[in-house]
Amino acid sequence: MKIAVIGLGYWGPNLTRNISTVPEVDLAAMCDMDESRLDVQARLYPGAKATNSLSEVLEDPAIDAVAIATPVSTHFELAKQSLLAGKHVLVEKPLATTVIEAEELVRLAAKTGLTLMVDHVFIYSPAVQKLAQLHREMAFGDLRFIDSVRINLGLVQQDVNVIWDLAPHDLSIFDYVLGRGPRSVLTAARVGPGAELATLAHLHLDYGDGLIASVHVNWLSPVKIRHLLIGGSRRSALYNDLDTSEPVKLYDRGVDMAEGAEGRRQVFVSYRAGDVLSPKIEKVEPLRNLIKHFASCAETGSTPLSDGWSGLRMVQALEAADRSLEKGGVFVEIPDA
Q1: pLDDT of the residue at 199
Q2: Edge-to-edge strand ranges of the sheet holding 65-68
Q3: The pLDDT of residue 266
Q4: What is the distance of C-alpha 53 from the center of its chain?
Q5: Full-model pTM
Q6: How many Å apart are CA 69 and CA 135, to the nearest integer?
Q7: Cβ of 115: how many Cβ atoms within 10 Å?
Q8: What is the per-residue pLDDT across 140-172, written as a single tens digit (0 to 9) for each?
Q9: Pairwise CA distance, residues 205 & 271, whole Å
Q10: Of 231, 41, 20, nearest to 135 (Cα)?
Q11: Strand 143-153 to 116-119 pairing
């Protein structure tokens, strides 16, 4: 399958590098308005066409698919044009800037029979896939909480706030591991010095059944932290994306509670301190897995793990988070996609 990469800024070079190493696909073309970016990538991949013309890419019958890595505000129009041109589409998160736009892309992909896939790269990580497996096997027991911290210094975006930039990573992980979306969200955020949009935020998501998930995203932190903690009645797990040797640790530690003879007036609490296990995690770049999956789905017509519906659910949650901010930080219901 021949793929063109549209946008060679921050994420585009990661796409070109991985596409060039996956046997199932060919890097056919690269497109960007910035000539200097094009020159750099053209020297690295001389076999791929380098152009600043989008129409040249979309009108080329030899190109089967496009990977879009441009600013969020351009995702909808570029994805729509690509689908109408008969190309399978992989688009960087989030899928679009509004639910209405995301819905239109989902409908268009269904109408054309083309693959629409969102670059929710973390669900293609062996570490996250291990968390999902542990949850399916009830290794955690009843889930009690999920806490995620995704902070570092930059990159401050100009067209979206920190929620739309960073939170999709965590929301897509929750969606994949839990197999369902949140019912409502409460958001608190602040605008940093000299910025126009929120640069740090806290999201609290209600998943029902007593499960609350919290997300902390921040562009202004002097340190980089990528922690996700899942707490259950039996075991808990810590996923540290920056730990390349032991990214997942499973803790047999927790709190056991039992009611005494007088019922709720007397509750016995015992603390359990057991082993800490580090399951074996395959060392492979998630983006490579994602590209192979995209190619397979486009060729077979199977549904991607991060299909258009998945992208729509993320945009619904993000819009609800913004509405919560507008209402002063109250829980806002999230529609069922």
Answers
A1: 95
A2: 49-51, 26-31, 2-6, 65-68, 88-92, 116-119
A3: 60
A4: 29
A5: 0.93
A6: 32
A7: 26
A8: 999 999 999 999 987 788 889 999 999 999 999
A9: 27
A10: 231
A11: unpaired
pLDDT tens per residue, range 90-134: 999 999 999 999 999 999 999 999 999 999 999 999 999 999 999
Q: What are the φ/ψ torsions at residue 315 (nearest 5 degrees)?
A: -65, -35
Identify the burial level of 180 via C-beta atoms within 10 angstroms of its C-beta, where 0-12 means exposed, 13-18 middle and 19 or more buried.
middle
Amino acid at 237: A
Give the SS3 label for residue 82: helix
What's the pLDDT at 268? 63
Domains of the chain: 2-120+298-306 (3.40.50.720), 123-286+316-333 (3.30.360.10)
At 317, the amino acid letter reads: A
Angle at 300 between CA 12 and CA 109, to 5 degrees: 65
pLDDT at 254 over 70: no
pLDDT above 90 covers what percent of the chain? 88
φ, ψ at 117 (rounded to 5°): -135, 140
Cα 142 to its chain centre, rounded Å, is 24
CA distances (Å), 14 to each of 148, 244, 272, in order?
Answer: 25, 19, 44
Give dist(CA 314, CA 312) in Å, integer. Answer: 5
Q: How far apart (Å, rounded) are the C-alpha atoms in residues 142 and 145?
A: 10
Q: What letter represents residue 79's amino acid? A: A
- What is the Cα–Cα distance from 97 to 197, expressed in whole angstroms? 15
Q: How far apart are CA 305 and CA 269, in angstroms?
A: 41
